[in-house]
Amino acid sequence: MSIKIDELSSPLFSCIEEPDLKAMLECMEYNIGHYKKGEIIALEEENIRYIGVLLSGAVDMIKEDFWGNKTLIVRMEKDELFGETFACGEDSLSIVTFVVSEDAKILFMPFDRIMHCCTLACRFHHRLIENMVHMIAGKNRNLMRKVEAVSKRSIREKILAYLSIQSQAQDSRYFEIPMGRVELAEYLCVDRSALTRELSKMKAEGIIDYDKNYFRIL
What we know:
Elements: H1 18-28, E1 31-35, E2 40-42, E3 50-64, E4 70-77, E5 81-82, H2 84-87, E6 97-110, H3 111-115, H4 124-150, H5 155-170, E7 174-176, H6 181-188, H7 192-204, E8 208-211, E9 214-217
Antiparallel strand pairs: 1-6, 2-6, 3-4, 3-5, 3-6, 7-9, 8-9
């Protein structure tokens, strides 16, 4: 399936000229996938041999325990990568499930085609690998921010830590969060009803204000 060059806005392709992008796609033997919300891309314990680039939509990385409790580890949105953690490792067996949270168009590239230069020794390969390393480092920083939030003891502290991170990332006291209440509860590892009650209390106490996914730190 063909792809338009203007769809390749991900930082993964930064500083690679259009002729090289076209050559790269021919070299990579890529695939394009179209998914509806709720569809599963890869299940836990599947081998991941590719790197996915979100051309549109969003994908959730979900961990489910023995009793069926789900934890939203991270949500990947347009231009972000997913699957690289397992594709890059010696063991490509996934320990999470990837689920589409918003209708998505995804570019899949085999990891070995990214890491090993072709016989033409395409000059963009090194740039592509550098860009991928930078993006992985950015994802690791985001995961550290999540650890900062979920490691707090009380629900209120978790909420405040999460909202603080979002406020700083968007450089504003008024901002939109990318998740609804169910997803936010899963992300913070708390009960949804308890989360909703605590948000209401914080609003009543004048700590925050919100309307759906729009928040303001007072």
